[in-house]
């Protein structure tokens, strides 16, 4: 059967209230995006978020909290890939920001959430919209 896949997206906020965004290469290029990835079998949302953030950035997020869910239909219409994204928030982290997967990301930078760079990956764009609106879900996404 053909079913949507589940991803996680993580909004990491620093002390200046900026969020971490990377410029994707390869998959999801040429879009900007928050850190994230696939939910693996048997993994909690929090475990997936901690794993993906560390694999991509070298940061270890502490106590990520689920804040929203998105149904990423724009990607489905454009690429025939349907994802549901569980979005988490973290403002507590340790480690040094590092580009750990240069084959997947050009670099990581901190941006004000109302001034994110474009073009932006739909799942990430929707997560930031939820974050800014303090919403859990928005009916029209895509």
Overview of the structural elements:
With 142 residues, the chain is of the alpha+beta class. It has a single domain, classed as Nucleoside Triphosphate Pyrophosphohydrolase. The chain contains three helices and nine strands, in the order ββββαββαβββα. The chain has helices at 45-57, 73-79, 122-133; strands at residues 5-12, 19-24, 32-33, 36-38, 60-61, 65-72, 83-90, 93-94, 105-111. The strands form three sheets. A four-stranded mixed β-sheet has the order 4-1-7-6, with helices on both faces. The longest helix has 13 residues, at 45-57. The model has no long low-confidence stretch (mean pLDDT 93).
Task: Give a topology summary.
Blueprint: E1 5-12, E2 19-24, E3 32-33, E4 36-38, H1 45-57, E5 60-61, E6 65-72, H2 73-79, E7 83-90, E8 93-94, E9 105-111, H3 122-133
Parallel strand pairs: 1-7
Antiparallel strand pairs: 1-4, 2-3, 2-9, 5-8, 6-7
* Largest sheet, strands/sense/barrel: 4 strands, mixed
The main sheet orders its strands as 4-1-7-6
Low-confidence residue ranges: none
Structural class: alpha+beta
SSE ordering: EEEEHEEHEEEH
Report the CATH topology name: Nucleoside Triphosphate Pyrophosphohydrolase
CATH architecture: Alpha-Beta Complex
Look at the structure and give the mean pLDDT.
Answer: 93
Number of strands: 9
Number of separate domains? 1
Number of helices: 3
What helical percentage do the residues reach?
Answer: 10-25%
The CATH homology group name: Nucleoside Triphosphate Pyrophosphohydrolase
Shape: globular
In short:
With 142 residues, this protein is an alpha+beta fold. The two termini are 23 Å apart. The chain has 3 helices and 9 strands, in the order E-E-E-E-H-E-E-H-E-E-E-H.
């Amino acid at each position: 059967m053909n079913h949507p896949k589940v991803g996680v997206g993580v909004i990491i906020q620093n002390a200046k209230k900026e969020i971490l965004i990377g410029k994707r290469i390869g998959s999801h290029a040429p879009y900007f995006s928050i850190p994230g990835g696939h939910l693996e079998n048997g993994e909690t949302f929090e475990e997936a978020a901690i794993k993906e953030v560390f694999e991509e950035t070298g940061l270890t997020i502490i106590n990520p909290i689920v804040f929203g869910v998105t149904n990423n239909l724009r990607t489905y219409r454009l690429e025939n890939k349907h994802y549901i994204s569980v979005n988490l928030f973290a403002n507590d982290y340790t480690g040094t920001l590092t580009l750990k997967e240069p084959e997947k990301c050009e670099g990581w930078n901190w941006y004000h959430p109302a001034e994110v760079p474009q073009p932006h990956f739909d799942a990430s764009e929707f997560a930031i919209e939820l974050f800014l609106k303090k919403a859990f879900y928005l009916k029209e996404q895509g």
